[in-house]
Amino acid sequence: MADTFASLALVPKADAPQSAKDFKTDQEVRWCPGCGDYAILAAVQSFMPELGVKRENIAFVSGIGCSSRFPYYMNTYGVHSIHGRAPAIATGLAISRPDLSVWVVTGDGDALSIGGNHLIHALRRNVNLKILLFNNRIYGLTKGQFSPTSESGKITKSSPVGSVDYPFNPLSVALGAEATFVARTVDSDRQHLQSVLRAAAEHEGTALIEIYQNCDIFNDNAWEPLKNPDTRDDVTIRLNHGEKIIFGSNNDRCVVRKADGTLGVANVADVSVDEIVTHDAHAADPAFAFSLSRLSHPETLQDTPIGVFRDVKRPTYEAQMREQIQTAEAVAGAGDLNALLHGKDTWDVL
Amino acid sequence: MSKEVVELDHVSIRFAGDSGDGMQLTGDQFTSTTAGLGNDLTTFPDFPAEIRAPAGTLPGVSAFQLHFGDHDILTPGDHADVLVCMNPAALKANLKELRKGGDLLINTDEFGKRALAKVGYEENPLEDGSLDGYNVHPIALTSMTVETLKEFDMSKKDAERAKNMFALGMLLWLFSRPLEPTIKFLDAKFGKKPTILEANKKALQAGWSFGETTESFATQFVVKPASMPSGTYRNIHGNLATAYGLIAASKRSGLPLFLGTYPITPASDILHELSKHKGFGVRTFQAEDEIAAIGAALGASYAGMLGVTTTSGPGIALKSETIGLAVALELPLIIVDVQRGGPSTGLPTKTEQADLLQVMFGRNGEAPVPIVAPQSPADCFNAAIEAARIAVTYRTPVFLLSDGYVANGAEPWLIPTEDSLPVIEPKFATGPNHTLEDGTEVFWPFKRDPETLARPWAIPGVAGLEHRIGGIEKQDGTGNISYDPANHDFMVRTRQAKVDGIAKTIEPLLVDDPSGSAKTLVIGWGSTYGPIQDACRNLRAEGIQVAHAQVRHLNPFPSNMGDVLKSYDKVIVPEMNLGQLNMLLRAKYLVDTIGFNQVRGLPFKTQELMDAIKEVASRG
Predict the structure, then answer these.
(1) Contact, B596 vs B579, CB < 8 A?
(2) Per the confidence metrics, is the pTM higher than 0.90?
(3) Measured between CB atoms, does B461 come within 8 Å of chain A?
(4) Nearest one of B284, B286, B258 to B273, comparing CA atoms
(5) Which of A247, B70, B350, B423 has the fewest Cβ atoms surrounding its Cβ within 10 A?
(6) Of A61, A75, A346, Cβ closest to residue B233
(7) What are the pLDDT digits (tens) for B159-200?
């Protein structure tokens, strides 16, 4: 554990060690039994002590949807807001208070459908927010309509003969929106999930973490190939910065650059070591991460990368805003209200 | 030749030209010079939504009217006494605004055949006798400007652009105003472009000299200073006063100001102004849309800032859901609605008062929000502070309901000192506020102050006060999610009672009835103050006694509202909508109030109001 996460440099440190229990509330958790949200909640609660900051300086902001009930179960400050708007509300909070660690919890409908605009603008601004996007490819709280990440042709209550919507790839969207940190993980893999949270906490700016989460009521087994011990190693590509991208239960598959410049998957046996692509999360050009985001097959989930796709440095919105305020104060001194109200052209009536 | 000097007690001047002719700047400059001489004044910029419609066309006409005098001036004047027309389009669009017999200054250089044809003049109005009822002054403004500037190394086109300064110089002479304030202004504006600076100064001076020597002007006018309370004054626009009021509220509350906004006419100038004042710790956030703008402002309020969002009617429609959230979260938030003509995009640059019912009721569920409406440009300052007081004291969103007329209009302002402004106390929660049966001290985010019914404002960063709030109905006290029927009924009534209770802290409705014998009350709200007051004074001068009250707090109403309404035989409610306050008054007080309504995108004219009031007063 780092002494201080870079994104938390201005957040007061905890006086004493904390435990997961410190982050649990007395509220009864109201998700369906078997919901992937439980695993994410437990993973986040047990990760929070690692931040090493005061609990009262952590805030969770959510929108609407099953995932957005999350703040009620975190013993921190929290706002359960309205549909799609959590990134906007959290932006106001984070800009105002650099002494806070601000987390956004959202879902595929909340973040990508009704709140798509706020998500992309938060990402391009690089506000110091950590956005946890629970993607279960379905609308849960409204009882089972297709979402913007549902597969084409999906049969749901609102698409009885199959959805004709084409889905978003959330990470491709984020990368197209100039995101500085983009990662993906899976609800049931606590170790991996926490490793991604750690990297996000280190990142100064907006971090988007897509968490593949299972809705066992309306879209059970949506991510099964990635979770089933029999298949997961063969379909999942685990990304580690600086390492050759090799995967498969026998480490027999790898990522290579194709003739057209995009990335593809090959058998290790068929290529030379030099041809195997080394993962570079710090690549300035988002094209590399974008190409990684396009590897997975949208239906079979074959060749799905997880881990940190992109993690690059860019000044945060609030740091730049603070600098402008400090410069203004340094140049002209703190504002003098009487001088402001007077302005330059006055006259006296005796 | 020395000219006759005539003293006027008031005069209204209208500048009209193409959008590119600089009429707004010319009007503003004449205004600030006039303000500096101690005249009272009211201005009315009247411009199109298009930035620059094709030159010489009717849609491209931009006008600025200024009414100034030696006594308190309440309106821009029903009709201008002097109209300056830079081209045929300006004449065609504005001649009806000039009183019969008024002075008409026309730039004859622009009255060629093509320019006339462009706006549908078959004959030259300068020659066909159609202007016979006016005192016409044909002036070759453009060519004289170009001639004046011939020694300058600039194109004819650039030289022509200084013709507004020539016109301004001429008007300044005509009304005996000094050139120095404009010279100072030009120095500041064009300091880095010496040729343009000198050309403009020269054109200004030439216009003045022309006024002095031309035989077209037989007289020069003086308007003496108005008698006003002693003190230091400045000229101020409504949007500027709103911005200053917000900064003042920030200072007087100790809460840093956070503006989350999205550009929209006619509110954007508040953003422009606030973005300049980072030295006051002001954070301005130009969001991706209206929804994000208010979302960020609400997030800032949660953080402990003075959260503000500024917009116009269409923006309010988009913000409605977040305003409902602010009602549910019970957090301070100031929502500035600078009203414009609607519905939909409507008339972006014109004024209207048709958002009252939208801000009053435009949310799902029972979601009461206090409303404060400024009555004049300078009053926006006080109204903004009052909105902040209510928001912070009662932990509630508050509407500051301005409009295009007060926002863009200007008037002299007796500058207050910081010390004289009210102090606003945020009173953040600092520790537990409730003891459980077992003696445990806890923090309850929805345990209310018994006096104000406000809940505690516990900002992140305070240990022991960690709590969760949201849009779902909350249990009284604990703030935990609750779907209990009786609790919901209680919470709905409590939020309403909290807003209703604000009436205890607002001043009673003040009735202006000098004779004390009026049987007819005229009641208005917001920017109609000037025209209504002007109409009432004129009627009294004619011997007709009428009372006038202007409502500043539209929700809740002042506690004496019902008594006031019931003490008059007739109550007339003029509004720039189809009767929105009228509907509220009738519904709440069961008084047979009578609406007088116009939705023309323009402020009321005094004479029209007088006629309407007289008609009502004379009914049996």
Answers:
(1) no
(2) yes
(3) yes
(4) B284
(5) B423
(6) A346
(7) 999 999 999 999 999 999 999 999 999 999 999 999 999 999
